[in-house]
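Side project, low priority. Logging it here so it doesn't get lost.
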Amino acid sequence: MKFWYSNLRASTALSLIAAFGCIQNASAQQIANAQQISSAQDIISPAKNTANFQTYTPDYFSQYAPRTALDMVVQIPGFTISGGGNTKRGLGQGGANVLINGKRISGKTSARDRLSRINASSVVRFEILDGARLDIPGLSGQVANVVYKATTITGNWQWRPSLRKHLEPNLFGGEINVSGSSGELQWSLALKNRAFRFGNRGREFRTSPDGALIETRDEVSRFSNEAPKVATSISWTPRADHIFNLNAEMSKANFDITEFSGHTAFDVRGDNNLTSFENGQDNFRAEIGADYSLPFGPKKLDGTLKIIGIARYLDSPSRANFITLNGTDKIDETRFSTDNETTETILRSEYSWADKMARSWQISLEGAYNRLDANGGLQVLDIPSGQLIDIPLSGSTAIVSEKRGEATLAHTRKITSNIDIQTSVGFEYSQISQTGAQSLKRSFFRPKGFVQASYNIAEDFAVRPRIARDVGQLNFNDFISSVSLRDELSNTGNANLVPEQIWAGEVEFEKKYPKGNIIKIRVYADFISDLVDRIPVGTNGDAVGNINSARRYGVDINATLKSEVFGFDGVQLDTTLDLRNSSVDDPLTGQTRRLNNDKITLWEIGLRHDIKGTNWAFGSTLSDISRSSVFRLDTISSPGGGDIQTKPKLSAFIEHKNISGLKIKTEITNIFNGKDVNDRLLFTNRRDLGQIDISETSRRNFGQTLRLNVSGTF
């Protein structure tokens, strides 16, 4: 308790000192902003083609005392931000299910980042739309359109320190956002640091198949990250129906891992050594994306041409070092380093128009060029000389590139007053090249498209079916050979890797009830060809490769229950339940199993109570997830990433919304004291040829985390 009290007192004092210095005239600013919103509501008209949409005005969110548009959208019943981001293949159609003043977000900027730059005081309203009814091909399900008007310079900030036992305090996480407008120009600027401190500790037990103890390992791991980022966005309307958008960002991330393991032998197969693992990665990212739309073509078509361009750069040098000590004597050392540079350039054009029946059409062309320049090196310690010597690692140095072109035609039409349908047909041509030890060039032609509909059976009940043919995105690092020193695993590069293709089908049911209560059920099935998974290469190679076919299907259920329907005020319950199954024929044994690291179940219950007539709120979240095992050439392991724990995750918070204009939230996580699960089976040979040799069982304790979130506006 002394640890928590002293650190909490220090963090609270720091937060109040910083916050009081930033906020001077919060009340006056809020009054001025309210007047701006009142006038802006008359200026900005509702989105087009959005019959039966639902509107949320700033009054709805007042109980939450939001600072940003992101604070507001996360409180909309039944809505979850999805789509977009850096993992998507190219730009394509659709993107994130968030629009800014009726337009999709330019480039690959995160929707959450973009919303956090908009002050809550500038928001006029949120419109919850149906993706199949919009003139933006590819959007499906619920879409949130944030309508905002910035008439003065406004800003918001957050400070997010956290404390965890056995770790250094994380004091530098937070962000500052400033936005404003001048004439026909709207702009925003953000400075963020996504810093974190993680770690765990525990004992690993290594046993033989008959249960005999071979060795124990007392292990301590620490993970730290500093990731400062600066980002800006500009929207300019030089003349009527001409719109220019620009998004740019630059970041520098320093990620470090350290792990110490003390061994105690109970069998001749064990040892009494000490191992040390260190890994560091320094990422420099830069991205710029812009688009310009203008009237184009015959006047009777009322057509619009939009040109979109994006350029991205990533430099990610890394180094890993694994040392084995017997007492004070170094008996082994291995180093693996990489210096990888990744670039992506995309140019896309979209021409949209409406025919004489007011049905919308869009034809789009997209070209992209992706490139990875990888350089890897492996070194081991030569004991007699005490020098590190280079070890050849075939495939660790290479250049991988892809040239891709795409053409699509999309069409949206209203079938009846309550049925809308949207279709898209197109194709993709790509050429993948690799130089180095596995020099190879291949070309592919793949069809793609979708059909989706929205059927409003009643004003409060909608059904949304969708069938799509998708092409997945490749990770070029899978083409390059590497080693994982921490887990003693090798990864063989695979120059024959191709993108997976998916026939995806789903039906979403949405039922709305009075007072903001809602339930959504999504049933889906994916039929995958060329699944990207782990496969054997040659006799002893273990690589990411393609498996002919696989299936994945499940149901997602989300519900929001607000207490007003029962006569209470201020209580909201959000629940999620995801159930999934999958199947693939194991490339080694031929037996049917789940996809590697695939979700099996996920459930979450979140409760929030805003106490009526006060500035206080409290709540908690309880959740759990299960995933399938990870199958490699000669190992079967539990899922990684810290997802799997011995107990459900319980967190609780208390929040005060106005302490001299500040909102202060304190949260504690992992109240049940769950532990990270790290299990592995090691085989004597390939899994299809050998037997289980060693079982590793580990339960690592990481304790509770105390988090503070102090936010304000200016």
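Brief comment: DSSP finds four helices and 39 strands in the chain.
Revisit when time allows.
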